[in-house]
Design a protein that fits this description.
38% of the residues lie in helices and 29% in strands. The chain is α+β, with helices and mostly antiparallel strands. A 5-stranded antiparallel sheet has the order 9-8-7-6-10. It has a 4-stranded antiparallel sheet with strand order 12-13-11-14.
Length: 305
């Protein structure tokens, strides 16, 4: 009984996205306390269900969430669609037509890739991704296209959790990382948010009028100031050339005598660990502090073997 009700709660939230706890309690004939306990259980299980208080409050499920691939087989999708079509034709039931539309949209959205601006196909998922990242990308693209306000549950680089309403203006891809440039209602200024750091996302039902902005208004250096960057010179073995080109860019690596060398300015954050990930195929020629940091990490790895 418990798990059947929990599945029904998910179905209700997928259909309405936001309801009150009392509505769920009345619908499934359970207490408010039980509703909140089931919500906690669903959240622990990884379903992005939450209780939001305030203006946009209610029991909600992230608008970036959909049923996982494999929830319905192709045969089950087709059977459900055919049954609903037959039912709607006989009784002219608007609810059946609405359910049919939702099921067919779920079927169309099963593919993980996403189209941006009509001409670019992007598979936004990361390795091991179950589609959650791609779904957030689709939700952000929809918000940009429709000028729709969204509320996000965001985790900063420092691990700080915050919930804020944003007006998404444009999606940005930089160094294989996706961002959304948006006006933040909390800070009352434009901010750049990393899509991978958005935990949950909800459409508020409100829309905004876009202000005129130019590309020059968008700070493409994002988190890195002058003190966060360092000039480096790297020597790259030919066995690592393909991976190094994807990281640094093909124009950044040039042959010198019998060596491959890269000179460029890079963010300090995580740089030594990135170099270590090449398994010794990249050597730091300068600066000396970075070379020493790489050596220190290598020693710790050896000591742990």
């Amino acid at each position: 009984m418990k798990y059947r009700i929990m599945i029904n709660i998910i179905s209700t939230l997928l259909a309405k996205r936001k309801v009150t706890a009392k509505e769920l309690a009345d619908k499934y004939e359970i207490s408010l306390r039980t509703v909140y306990r089931y919500i906690d259980d669903l959240s622990v299980a990884g379903i992005p269900v939450d209780v939001v208080r305030g203006r946009y409050g209610g029991v909600t499920i992230s608008d970036a969430y959909r049923l996982p691939d494999g929830y319905f087989t192709r045969e089950e999708y087709d059977s459900a669609c055919n049954a609903l079509k037959a039912w709607a034709a006989q009784v002219n039931d608007g609810a059946a037509l609405s359910a049919l539309d939702k099921i067919e949209r779920q079927k169309k959205n099963d593919r993980s890739e996403m189209t941006v601006s009509g001409n670019i196909i992007v598979d936004g998922g990361v390795w091991g991704d179950n589609g959650a990242f791609s779904d957030k990308m689709k939700a952000c693209e929809r918000a940009v296209n429709e000028c729709a306000c969204v509320q996000i549950d965001y985790i900063s680089r420092d691990g700080e959790h915050s919930r804020r309403v944003i007006d998404p203006y444009v999606l940005i891809l930089k160094r294989n990382v996706w961002y959304v440039y948006a006006f933040c209602h909390t800070k009352q200024e434009f901010r750049t948010f990393k899509i991978g750091r958005i935990k949950k996302l909800w459409f508020t039902g409100e829309h905004f009028e876009k202000k005129s902005i130019s590309k020059e208004d968008i700070p493409l250096n994002f988190f890195y100031g002058a003190d966060d960057m360092t000039d480096v010179t790297l020597e790259i073995e030919r066995s690592a050339l393909a991976d190094a080109e994807e990281w640094l860019g093909v124009d950044s690596i040039e042959p010198r005598a019998d060596k491959l060398v890269c000179e460029m300015r890079l963010p300090k954050d995580g740089l030594a660990n990135k170099i270590i990930s090449f398994g010794g195929a990249i050597k730091v020629l300068s600066p000396e502090p970075l070379a020493e940091e790489v050596k220190s990490i290598a020693r710790r790895i050896c000591d742990g073997v």
